[in-house]
Amino acid sequence: MVKAIIFDLDGTLLDREQSLRLFLDDQFERLREYFTQVQKDDFINYFIEYDAHGYVKKDRVYKALIDQLNIQFVDEKDLLMDYDMNYPKFATGFPDVKEIISRLQNRGYKLGIITNGKVEHQRYIIDVLGIEKYVLEILISEAVGYRKLDPEIFMMMCDKLGVTPQECLFVGDHPMNDIEAPHNLGIQTVFKDNHYFEAPDSSVMNYRIENLSELFSIIDEETI
Q1: Largest Cα span, the chain
Q2: Of 11, 38, 153, 224, which has the fewest Cβ atoms less than 10 A away?
Q3: Residues 24-42, mean pLDDT to the nearest whole number
Q4: Element (H or E) spanning 67, and its range?
Q5: How does residue 224 score in pLDDT terms, banded at 50, 70 and 90?
Q6: Is 144:155 a contact under the CB 8 Å cutoff?
Q7: How many CA atoms, within 13 angstroms, populate the side-chain half-sphere of residue 155?
Q8: Please, what is the Cα angle at 117 between 80 and 189, to 5 degrees?
């Protein structure tokens, strides 16, 4: 029986592309004087392409962007500093994320978040999404010393929530970090399909959803 639901953050609760587009639009406008001869759409779209859904370091993304668009009056360090300071302000959840998290908590499920990244950055995002008060435990790789797909970070969450792996659902959008890794520990897995990553093999994926609201059908099925 499922007692706990653990979520990835970026691409699962956080609509990362929408958040990025809002931030990059703002960054371009604020720093427009440095982007002479650069089209805003190119600035945004090349960044998102090079970012690879968050799996390329941002200094490398900005370096590639500067080279591609021949930006000459500002360097990647300054743009990266601005990103670190301002991107989380534009954090945008997938539809009804706060309501869904609240309803799951009200049903008695223990909720957790496991995310790779910097503590201050990820905490800021969670705060902007307005979901922290519904979540019992948040594990961020920088703080705990383990990253997904290391099994230790999943077992640490189970221990903190007081559940066994078999009593958990893990919801995420990355085929290896969020599906294969927890599956190998006996955790049931829910693939949040954003049509970016190729779906994992059905042997490691218990469920596949496109909208977080579909979780209610899954947990109702699990309690039958």
Answers
A1: 62
A2: 224
A3: 95
A4: helix 58-69
A5: very low
A6: no
A7: 6
A8: 140
